[in-house]
Amino acid sequence: MKPYFSFQWHITDECDQRCKHCYIFAENTGKCPDRMTRPQMEAVLKNCRDFCETFGRQPYFYLTGGDPILHPEFWTLLDMFKAEAIPFTIMGNPFHLTDEVCQRLHECGCLRYQLSIDGIEETHDWFRKPGSYKTTLEKVAMLNKAGIRSIIMTTVSGKNIDEVPAIIDAVVAAGAKVYAFARYCPTSEEKENSISPQRYRKLLEDCDKIFRNYEAAGYDTYFNRKDHLWTLYDYEMGRFQIPKDAEPDMIYGGCNCGNGHLTILSTGDVYACRRVQNSRVGNVFDKRLADLWTNEFEAYRDYDKFQKCSKCELKAWCRGCPAVASSTSDGDFYAADPQCWKKI
């Protein structure tokens, strides 16, 4: 079977929330939400098919927004996926999920539905909106019942880092099938995320113990060690070893920006990574994605440009998070990850 290629596709900016760390509205709360028309969505799907045919891949979509379910042609698009047996994940909100909606999502090919918990109840509802904490956790069982793998994601910042262990307990108690966290990328003039490298390492250490305790107790939740700094942590703990047959010029893992992923916004703009604010490479409506991939995306594959990672023996497996590095520097994709504690 051909390997998958991941397209993160934002079909609309419309949303029931105005999260304080939202990339869309963080700098402009008066922004008029953009959304694709049906012909535009058909054009995007055609362009993605062409990309996969060119490179011998199969499409996998991470459908998001905003909240994609608010798009008036949401189900039309899902019927297109169903007709071609294209698998997808929804990254959205809990507010419009019902048993009937979840069953229909499953029938259309939805494999996973990602929700967010960004703190214990008071903190989460401050970030997002009152009542969303309880609503999110309540919908986990509904997704599981429909055969959709429930995912809970946390955006870690200085505001909520001390609450992550309590979040994990709440997520496991709710029966979530997957839990992961990623770091907040500051927007606009905000360049400080107030987490020191050693404090972040301590978070990984604490979470590692919690994860292992739950795993040993036989809980169903899979803990996705999403942040690439887990590789550094596991390396220090002796759990990850550099393969003896590793080729020096190969990239084996780490950030997939420019490697196995791209983002399409509701305006048609194509980004190397949605979290890298200045990573626009073109527009899906006037350029073949396959051509962008072999040209403009090359700017994100010059691994010797990484200021710190290029000197590290883990370069081919880690590289931290360039999105966090970019957002806390002057937009330099190759800047040092501010939470990396390794001395080079």
Automatic annotation (TrEMBL):
Entry annotated with the keyword Secreted? no
Q: Which UniProt keywords apply?
A: 4Fe-4S, Iron, Iron-sulfur, Metal-binding, S-adenosyl-L-methionine
Cofactors, names only: [4Fe-4S] cluster
Which first-to-last residue range defines the signal peptide? none
Q: What residues does the Radical SAM core domain cover?
A: 1-215
A family per Pfam: Radical_SAM
Matching PROSITE patterns: RADICAL_SAM
Gene Ontology MF, one: 4 iron, 4 sulfur cluster binding
In Swiss-Prot or TrEMBL terms, this protein is called: Radical SAM/SPASM domain protein, ACGX system
